[in-house]
Amino acid sequence: MPITLLLSIAIFSASCVCAQVNSTLTSIGIDAKVIAPITLQNTGNTPLNFGTVSRSSAAGTVTVPTSGNRTSTGGVGVLSSSSYSPAPFTVTGENSANFNIALPINGTVLLTRTSGSETMPVNTFLSSIGTSPTLSSTGLATFVVGATLLIGANQIAGDYKGSFAVTVAYQ
Amino acid sequence: MVYILLVLLTVLTIDIYAQTSFTAQSSASVTLLDILRLVKTEDMNFGRLANGSVGSVSLSTSGERIVNGITAIGESGWKPARFDVSGTPDYEYYISLPNEITLEKDGNQLVVENLVAKASSATENGLKGVVTSNAFFTVGGKLVISSPNFTPGNYHASFEVSVGYN
Would the pTM of this model clear 0.80, i.e. be above it? Predict the structure, then answer.
């Protein structure tokens, strides 16, 4: 919310400090422009969902991209019948403003087995609109976040859950 | 009197952001299934046959032997193949079978075709099953005798079967 103050002051003064000072404030203009606060929501609370995957005795990865099909590497297989999705986000703010998207760095997000303590890291977070996008002319932006899940060779089967934070900020 | 006209023109631009950044949380999840394991527990066996005619012997997935055109010997001893399946319960798996199997003895060949499977969770033949605590499937097929003079002896072959989660 920048406030622009246009302050115009004319001072008429005597030539010496002892003389009479005749001071006139001629004008003060205040031009205030309100910029909308920036907000971010995980649209519909839809999670980053890797779906259902299987593993062999070898380690591997499964990637939910920001667009297109889920992929896997190594000993990991994806069940084609299971649904998956990147996490959608909605940004609101000042019309046409530039902003930054900060995604988790590798090694900071873990999924934990719901009935245990085993974990799997989620790395390589990506935004569908990059990390330095611009809000639309109506102050809106939407994007999705995908990432890669690392599954160990001896990973215990089960449901794993976790959370991650995404931050947007005006440039 | 000397007047000094002092015009002070000041433009102040103050950027005051009520909300310069915003952080939102999202959850992430995955369901990881147990390794799907497949163990052969019975070999496929067509039993004993006599040469001298052409025909076929079919082994059903439930263990029946149906002889057509040739003479089968013995009252028992034939079996469909059986494989035990383990993994995460309640998940569906698919079965991959070879198109045909060629049995050999000293360079002579017999062919098994029309391979079929039936999962313990299924009521009829098919290539799908559901993992349960004691899941298995059986595999049958049709052995074709195309010559009345096939060489006597034991004919053997091995074949590969695979499973995967659907």
Answer: no
Query: What domain range is B70 assigned to?
Result: 43-165
| Domain membership flag for residue B30 | no
The answer to whether A122 faces chain B, any CB pair under 8 Å, is yes
Q: Within a domain: residue B132? A: yes
Q: Nearest CA to CA, how far is A135 from chain B (Å)?
A: 14
Number of structural domains found in chain B: 1
pLDDT tens digit sequence for A18-31: 444 455 555 666 66
Check CB contact of B25 with chain A, cutoff 8 Å: yes
pLDDT in tens, B67-94: 999 888 888 889 999 999 999 999 999 9
* Rounded CA separation B52/B75 (Å): 20
Q: Would the CB atoms of B28 and A163 count as touching at under 8 Å?
A: yes
CATH code for the domain of B128: 2.60.40
Q: Nearest-CA neighbor of A60 among A170, A151, A132? A: A151
CATH 2.60.40 fits A36-170, yes or no: yes
